[in-house]
Amino acid sequence: MITTIIQRAVMQGTPLLFGSTGEILTEKSGHLNLGIPGIMYVGAISGVAGSFLYEQSVAQINPLLAVIIPLICSLVGSTLMGLIYCFLTVSLRANQNVTGLALTTFGIGIGNFFGGSLIKLVDTDIPSIALSKTSNCFKTQLPFADNLGWFGDIFLSYGFLVYVAIIVALISSHILNKTRVGLHLRAVGESPETADAAGINVTKYKYLSTCIGSAIAGLGGLYYVMDYANGVWSNNGFGDRGWLSIALVIFSVWRPSISILGSMLFGFLYVIPTYIPGISVSAKKLFEMLPYVVTIIVLIITSMRDKKENQPPAALGLPYFREER
Amino acid sequence: MEQNIALELKNITKTFGKVVANKNVSLKVRKGEILSILGENGSGKTTLMNMVSGIYFPDSGQIFADGKEIVIASPKDAFDHKIGMIHQHFKLVDVFSAAENIVLGLEDEKGFDMPCYIEKIKEITEQYGFELDPYKKIYEMSVSEKQTVEIVKVLFRGADILILDEPTAVLTPQETVKLFKVLRNMREDGKAIIIITHKLHEVLSLSDNVAVLRKGEYIGTVKTAETNEAQLTEMMVGKKISLNIERSEPENVSDRLVVENINCVDREGIKLLDNVSFSARSGEILGIAGIAGSGQRELLEAIAGLQHLDGGSIIYNNPKTGESENLRDKTPLEIRQMGVRLAFVPEDRLGMGLVGNMDIIDNMMLRSYKKGKSVFLQRKKPKSLAEEIIERLEVVTPSAYTPVRRLSGGNVQKILVGREIASSPTVLMAAYPVRGLDINSSYTIYNLLNEQKKKGVAVIFVGEDLDVLVELCDRIMVIGSGRITGIVDGRNTTKEEIGILMTKSADNEQNGGEQ
User: Is there a contact between A191 and B93 if contact means CB atoms under 8 Å apart?
Assistant: First the structure.
């Protein structure tokens, strides 16, 4: 049973990991993107739409195409959302919180609209679309995973997106801390006027990090539908995972490497009530609160310790005007 | 043309709207030379150097480097011509280490090689005698260490011409000595160094040549060895200009506010006010002169109950009851409840004085919000007050319901002063009340202050224009680095005397003021 719990925790945690890695990259440039839930939702529906059209158009699907098409659709969809956010907050200097919240509402609206339309096309009784063929491609495991006992179950039994999530988080962590691009990006988020004076193109860094961050977050949505939910799309099925991703950013004190473990902890807290025998519905709801409670505790601890490295980027949420007199 | 001229400016002019910041300024600095640019606040020193470092672009004039004419359109252009400027406000990322800040923004084909950079930083620090730990985070550093990072940053980029804007303003005397030592080392190495300053003794002890600016105009360059304090002061403040501000003889003078030995320390432990004692008398205008940021703001805020003090007392002699009360560390509300009628026109009009988005009437109510018992607002009285101020002070506004931020600076100031005077104060404090105002509005304000003086109010006027201070005030108190450097009689003083007092404090400190 422990292996099952761990497996479920990792699978629950993966969308959060994508979401929080994307959000960390965005926040490091000084932009608090509260549109992440909407962006992840759009990432999911874009992938579903792509794969739906592909599945409908051919009799026999090509496994490689079945993965690549939704992947590209998802990336394009969520990047577009990121671009909208950038244009509003970077170029037009709109309020980041308002823009982000609007984008979340907008993204969920888009998702439900196109989801609903697709469901109508299928003409079934159940209000959902099942893309099991595509899902199987996404869930393909390493061939020898089954032969390795518990080790294979815990470490090798997942679809490729889980590994992508971890690798992306590790790469992000490396870029942020060890490269010149990372140094410049952090400078933009900490003190855009300093970065500007040092000759760094602040707008370029903000756009790139926000768009790439959105693309990564969108993959979280795609993973959720294609792997976790076995290719079944139903409206509003994504739940509050987007918000949990943002909470996870704070939990991992803006470090993608910590976010890997954090996502699994959040996933664990998310699934654990299902495995407690005889638990009541109300107690289960209480358990669902845990990730947020943990986040608040982390927030309190990090602010109490007052260690500057553990604080959010100093210019987070502030629009940047180059002062011109 | 001389061979070793590093940088030459010819007839540089820069205007901001109608204000002329620099007019036909020409100067040159040679390799291996330290040039001081001397001038009062607002004389255009920083603007001039900002044009050299690529922040502003001159309206007209030429800049030559190494004998060739150059165009500096951005900070990057300045770097390309090996010009580096150390600004008064440091541009550093707090959570980064010194080394990370130094290499920030550099494009290097060889890739990102931190150990190699740190090696190079160490070479520079050793060559010139800096003390710097490249791994230390900026937020753990003192102001002087941060300045070192800024200087090393500029040297790291290979600058040969260094411009330092008021480098000693934030340093302790010991740190200043250290800084001067490295600057001299850099001079030996053939770098051209320009220092913007208003401290005479620094000019005399450090530089080879002094260029003096006054109100945007270039007055001249003199060799440091051939000049003295008196000559420089005269070049800096200029001849007396007559303004014809009316000044009546003070009547019924008595001590209204007696400040004794107050001290104030900021978060970094730097003394903002150092043993300040003086008295403000009724029926008199007390002027406060000093270089900007010498503690004027803290002093007024301390009296108004906005600044925590370490020691000392602020005694208020109530003219009605005859009682004396200590105002120290009381909140503004407590002060008002004690029956002290204190009016304060702060420097930051729309930040501390008025609420920009509220209309004139609501701004009137900021003073009287505690009055009345009803839960609903009574707008009648504030409305008539607002209308009275608009009429009497000739405020140009569409109506009393116009948000204050939409009015011009002069009108905003009239409303603020009008409101403060309407409370019939016994003490009126005004910080730079005519800053940014045209001549007519300025005279309106001077007249209002004089009117209050005649009513027996103790007026405290913080000003920057020495001509005005000398003509308006009965007594002038000069403050330098948080210390009173002298109190002079406004009727028999000269601008030169005040000018020397303004720059005096740092001298005292260096002669053993600090342990």
Answer: yes
